[in-house]
Design a protein that fits this description.
By secondary structure, this protein is α/β, with parallel strands linked by helices. It is built from 14 helices and five strands. The longest helix is centred in the N-terminal third of the chain and has 17 residues. It is globular, with a radius of gyration of 19 Å.
């Protein structure tokens, strides 16, 4: 998919060079390592066979895995495995599903990058969700989030790090009940991020958070997160506080910025390319492990194990 066509900025050539420098990589070395990784994948009986067409994607996986070939092998094997084990997390919503979800949550990547080349993404609970929290579709939330992370990792000249902004001014107690009822879905979502999708989380900003939301975060979410991520969750008591952390021109007006596009506009724009997203997912259905051929198949159960090592910088 063409993320620029959707309105997302790319890294400049200078930012791409800095990204390589940050991880001690060069384009030539990444190209060679991608070929090595592809050859290793070809020797694994349970993994799909890749061609040179996937080398750019593999190179980005290596770079996102801190330029470690060994770490990349584990991440890429897990990527194919979780798609086979939990396919419900890896599909595109229909147009109707996207529009229905947008009534209760606005969200998606913001168009502009920060000066250091970080992608911003936002989620905002709407008044409609506060009025009836049982309408919260947690699986759709996780599915869309994982889909964007995959796009980010797949697309050249897109950042490999992200900051998330959560506007939860419309948080109500009923969302606690809904979240707990779907806790297993949340844990699997975290596991997919943890073991298979190495996009680096810089910070998580909580805006307009009522005390009950902060309490829910502390009791229901933080116990499953590694300490580094917990330390990167920032609670802002005002939009002015958020604007001190992120340039105003990167933020929509609802978040204290100066962008003309509204959060709802950005959300609905993604629903207009639902068919393109569906075709993109369909083109990747072969990227799954054959679990029946996996050596030491019992180790797959490890995916239900610890949740303490999300990828961090």
């Amino acid at each position: 998919m063409d993320l620029v066509a959707v309105g997302l900025d790319e890294l400049t050539p200078a930012q791409v060079d800095k990204q390589h420098e940050e991880f001690g990589a060069t384009p030539e070395q990444l190209k060679q390592d991608a070929e090595t990784l592809r050859e290793w994948i070809a020797m694994q009986p349970h993994l799909p066979k890749l061609t040179e067409n996937e080398d750019v994607w593999l190179a980005r996986y290596i770079l996102a895995s801190k330029n470690s070939l060994e770490r990349s092998k584990k991440r890429i094997e897990n990527f194919f495995t979780v798609q086979s084990r939990w396919p419900e997390y890896f599909r595109a919503p229909t147009v109707d599903e996207g529009i229905a979800f947008a009534e209760f949550i606005w969200g998606g990547p913001l168009p502009l990058l920060t000066p250091d080349g970080t992608r911003l993404a936002f989620y905002k609970f709407t008044p409609a969700l506060a009025a009836d929290p049982q309408n919260m579709n947690w699986m759709m939330f996780y599915m869309l989030s994982l889909g964007y992370v995959q796009l980010q990792l797949t697309t050249p000249r897109q950042p490999l790090r992200i900051e998330v902004i959560l506007d939860i001014g419309n948080y109500v107690m009923g969302l606690n009940t809904s979240f707990v009822a779907h806790l297993a879905e949340f844990r699997r979502f975290l596991k997919c991020l943890q073991v298979a999708l190495p996009l680096h989380v810089r910070r998580v900003h909580m805006v307009n958070a009522p005390s009950m939301a902060v309490s829910a975060l502390d009791k229901l979410v933080r116990p499953f997160l590694p300490e580094k991520i917990n330390q990167r969750i920032v609670t802002h008591d005002s939009l002015e506080s958020l604007a001190k952390s992120i340039p105003h021109y990167c933020l929509p007006k609802e978040l204290g910025g100066s962008m003309e596009q509204s959060l709802k506009d950005i959300t609905l724009k993604w629903t207009t390319i639902a068919e393109e997203c569906e075709a993109w997912y369909e083109s990747r259905q072969w990227m799954r492990a054959d679990l029946s051929l996996r050596p030491n198949a019992k180790e797959i159960n490890g995916l239900d194990g610890t949740f303490r090592k999300l990828i961090v910088d």
